[in-house]
Queue: 4 jobs
Job 1
Amino acid sequence: MYDFKPDASLDTAELYRQLCDAADALTQGEPDAVANMANVAALIWEFVPDLNWAGFYRMGANAAGEDELVLGPFVGRPACIRIPVGQGVCGTAAADATTQLVEDVHAFPGHIACDAASESEVVVPIVRNGKVVAIIDCDSPTKARFSQGDADGLEKLALLLSDRV
Ligand code: SME
């Protein structure tokens, strides 16, 4: 049994330090990407307060063989399965290989609403050998829920996972 008990009073940097330690312990030596993403989605859900969705999209291909994001393991409501690169918050993070910190999803051009409860969102690319291989997506029902500290913490997690997903 894995029993990670995040302390609700942790500051953001310490919370993500502990989350990364737990993710490292759970994924180290495990070659199965889906298993690793499933466990890390569950960890994000346990550690990060005030979320309504946490999970992954992986880089796959559309019918024409072009890059396209495909839904991966997550916690939350069922979500859109495929997101073209360049569309929505996730597709923008994938296209630009940059973190998207969105205070108000309704103000983001092309935002894709998978859960009507979502008000803010942070999306971080996972890069391997210079290519985006997946993204981490967290949604919150609270406007401006995510800070630069959340983005920094999730970027550390993305780095840790770059050769494990
Ligand atoms: N809102 C995202 C879509 C994914 S869901 O939030 C899970 C976007 O605009 O790309």
Note: The radius of gyration is 15 Å.
Job 2
Amino acid sequence: MSMKGKFIVIDGGEGSGKTTILKWFAETPFGKKFLITHEPGGTKFADKIRALALSEEATRAPAETQFGLMWAARAEHLKNKIIPALAKGVNVISDRFDSSTFAYQIYGQEAKHLEELFWQTREVFLRDRKPDIYIFLDVEPEIGIKRISQNRKKAKPLDHFEKRSLDFHQRVREGYVEFFKTVPHITIDAHRSLKEVQLEVSALVRKYIRS
Ligand code: Z5A
């Protein structure tokens, strides 16, 4: 089966702006042509797994549990939403993907023993459906956390990952840097104003889709 659509992932730590930027992008004339989706979740069943993974009860769940839940949700999302769109020639952008599992479970939750299993699972689950490019919105955890704790509390309560220590979020950032040594990616400096980051993301996507 030939895959015509391009598969782009946008990822980064807390408050890097992914969600805000994708919401804006989805409303632009260019953005309307994309399937914009997110993880964990993206389908009805994957959203149920998301609810489990982010529930209070999961606060103390070990990395192995979260690793399994995230990959289960991803398999659903990929098979039932992403692959059908790509096959129809639709370009897909996912807010978070396997880069988040590497950063949060293996680095954030300190489970380096899962690293080999991560790459094996990635090969078996994604096969020829690996993202074409990852856009990494890089921001210092201190700054990202400040953004979400100032602006987000009322609209959407913080989940148990967001409530973790600064050390956790620093490890997550290290995890992203490590992951991106292996896959095609573009790093964007997300310390700048939302407008600047937004315009850079949009220009990059445009350039990438045309190339
Ligand atoms: N998780 C995992 O552990 N393993 C996995 O495999 C996957 C996920 C896939 C839920 O994710 C959690 O699941 C997540 C990782 C874990 N844990 N946490 N935390 P989610 O995607 O549902 O939630 P999130 O990504 O953390 O939150 P978010 O709302 O999507 O945040 P964001 O995209 O990073 O930021 P934002 O909502 O766009 O922006 C936050 C605020 O900052 C907002 O008020 C903006 O206006 C402001 N902002 C953003 N950019 C700027 C700039 N440049 N300047 C000033 N202010 C800004």
Note: The helical segments are 18-26, 44-54, 63-87, 98-108, 115-126, 141-151, 166-179, 194-210.
Job 3
Amino acid sequence: MSTHVIRHIGELITNDPSVGDGSNVGRIKDAALIVDEARVLWSGYDRDAPAADESIDVEGAAVIPGFVDSHTHVIFAGERSDEFEARMAGVAYDGGGIARTVAATRSTDRATLRDQSLKRVHDLGAGGVTTFEVKSGYELTLSGEERLVELASELSEEVTYLGAHVVPEEFRDDRDGYVALVAGAMLDACAPRARWADVFCDRGAFDVDEARVILASARKKGLGLRLHANQLADIGAISLAIEMDCASVDHCTHVTNEDLEALGSSSTVATLLPGAEFSTRSPYPSARRFLDAGVCVALATDCNPGTSYVTSMAFVIALGVREMGMSVDEALWASTRGGATALRRSDVGHLGVGARADFCVLDAPRVAHLAYRPGSRVVARTYRGER
Ligand code: NIG
Ligand code: FE
């Protein structure tokens, strides 16, 4: 393998607290970074940089770890901009539109679905995402969910089985039958290609008891657990996530102080998804409350056609900083190492020695530009190490 030195970095964020200024984000000014095709080999001051086979001069630009987007639904067909417009005019989101995406996805052939999903994957990558999770959940039949999980496994190694998105129309009078299918034959079909299982545990979706049954079965099949919790109402879903040792509890728009205290002493990451509050015109959860309670926070796009058609992690960072009480460093950490922690990954989300060589060069001298210049193309180039 050949080595590459990235020189004249104005501000390097490593997320390795053992290097740099002693902060959580391991910031080094006037830095250099050395990688081979796969891994990080060295970081430090530019003046101390050893020689490498190739030298890339970034002329004072900031460099950050590639974003880890730990919550997406990028595989779907169709769009629901009419619902977005209605919400902007005052209509509340209740999850009912999921059925429209289910109908559109079921009737789309695999090649078309793949092409449409790949466009969104491309957008994520262009904005600096180097690792992303992807959920099933828009077919809600055994063969359909199997098809989505299989397609997802072509796009990412972080595949989540979300047969428990909502109860589909054909099971309206037989909820128990659907829960049994999701926790039984559908799970059996999807588990071989999935790493995670997730349940939308909320008002209008699945309740805590149903979610517990599904998560317990998924764990028996060897899947890791995640939970969509309390986006629309506090139904007690956050305690369930902690009880089940979910890697991540996502949304948490409605959260009590008791939840925060319990999360702070758990190994469950709170993944906040401000694109959903933006697109449903809902109050943002205060990330500050979570951080002050010692909770590990991740930020993710939740890219989906209903509540967050967002593929830009920079936009999510801007919302975290502008609307949720995070500092730039906290929002950047949450979008990189926080996302990695939510996926229980230690090889991505940072640029410590041995990490994957996944990083972004910004068109900016300081990382604050990610929040300071919303809507502009701040991520100039993205590098993803060989797998
Ligand atoms: O994460 N909350 C559940 N699922 C998605 C929304 C799905 C949709 O409306 O299509 C979410 O917000
Ligand atoms: Fe989601």
Note: The chain has 15 helices and 15 strands.
Job 4
Amino acid sequence: MLKPQTSATRELVNLDGIWSFALESADVPEPWTGALPGPLDAPVPASYNDLFADPEIRNHVGWVWYQRSVRVPRGWAGERIVIRLDSATHEGAVYVNDTLVVSHEGGYLPFEADITDVVSAGEEFRLTVGVNNQLTASTIPPGTVKTLPDGRKQQTYMHDFYNYAGLHRSVWLYSTPAIHVEDVTVVTRLDGATGLVDYSVSVAGGSDVRVALRDEDGEVVATGAGAAGTLEVADVRLWKPGAAYLYSLEIEAVDGEAVVDAYALNVGIRTVEVKGNQFLINGEPFYFTGFGKHEDIAVQGKGHNDAYLVHDFQLIDWIGANSFRTSHYPYAEEVMDYADRHGIVVIDETAAVGLNAKISGGIADFGAMMGGEAQGEEGFGEAMATAHKREIRELIARDKNHPSVVMWSIANEPDTMADITEGYFEEMFAYARTLDTSRPYTFVNVMMAPPNVCKASKFADVLCLNRYYGWYLMGGDLTSAEQGLEAELRGWEQMYGKPMIMTEYGADTVAGYHSIWDQPWTEEYQVTMLEMYHRVFDRVDSMIGEQVWNFADFQTSSGFFRVDGNKKGVFTRDRKPKAVAHSLRARWTALRDGK
Ligand code: BDP
């Protein structure tokens, strides 16, 4: 799905700002038919949970309503008019005046509706958006809702981050001509010093297509005609980790010489390949350094924030990292664009997290203890498969053209121990591979599924492992932890011979806690524990990367064993470095600078 943009033929109006807001109420069964009841306002983009001082709102399970009025620009007469939501977490329903124009499941991906027939240029309309935060056995991620004896609904889920909800990303009104560029797919290859750009364009309404590729100086370096073809770029400037270079592919739907629609796409020319136990970018072995991240900040929750975007990437650069994983859901498109522009490598993950009743927040059996019941063996049925495939499909449709995305992760720490999961993951991988053949696929393996147990690793191109030796396992005993970690990694290496990335390793750390001993929760322990992991990684050939859990402290819901959230951040939630940030910086800048 193309990101909306302005061009010679397209206009774009941003609808962010303060909207009216209300919880669902039995007294107002169709809130979209008039002004929302009550005095509340909520900003877009933001989660609504932490805005108000009212537990009823924070703990609400079900629909909430956002509303504003929108005037269609008067110059849009005769144009196609589209409303686009970059996300609605987890389910959205969009009304233009009294008409439902689109609904969508899945909380982290965009959706849109052609509203040409229900609005008029120059006129105002009432835009109402319902957002539902309810997770069930067949949503991705899954969850369980119980109705308590007093009538309150209570939601539990297995993933270790707070179930923030709302309009987390921008809302747009945009225009295109009736005949318009609907989709573009670009795959890049290399032939010596020549870059090859395979493109294919679909035009709704049908028309001829003309494309031109410009370099960063604006010079045209290749042109093409027709809906699909290959552009050749002599003396190509490659998109490289840490040294991004972006061409611009200008696509025109044409009628003779007349340009009917114009759309431009950034193109980074690079290749990605898994060979033996290596991960090659542009034919060269790549070693991932960086983090699993979250979209999570104070007050705004999971709402996209450009200031944090820029600051987080500055910190990634400061610390010498080259990559991150979009744990545990697709991030805002602004993040992906920024990674493209700044040469940061991304492992792009679906929202399939918590498909595992046997674990929660890294703690085995905790899920069951907390009453988790939806994601056991019976969880891997038809309904979950359908939702999971939709998440894979929509993620790839949105992010397929980003050069920064070098691998798809189809799930985080699912149950891959139960027999039923083998066929399930075989099906998921096979399905994903029909959608993009230019990138490797992975899923992230959980500590309870070692090499001889895991039923899904055989389907992955790269083994991504989350391990907590020295924390949940052998906590406080780093000598045993080092032995355990090394033995397990060698076991994987022997059994699979595939490249391996440690996609999570980390220790909860309260900034300001100190000890001379191996004392969990102190800043020193986080440093020593990570150093132990690094010694092991450096001894195991098939290790091709390390991504610390987590970039920053983040909010969770899991009751008594988290104190104001998960504290495994290298930075605090407000992005202050813990001691470990400096030791990672020493290691990663040396790796980056080839020392
Ligand atoms: C892993 C999960 C991650 C948790 C982490 C932890 O992938 O989401 O936050 O453990 O417990 O199981 O810190």
Note: The two ends are 42 Å apart (CA to CA).
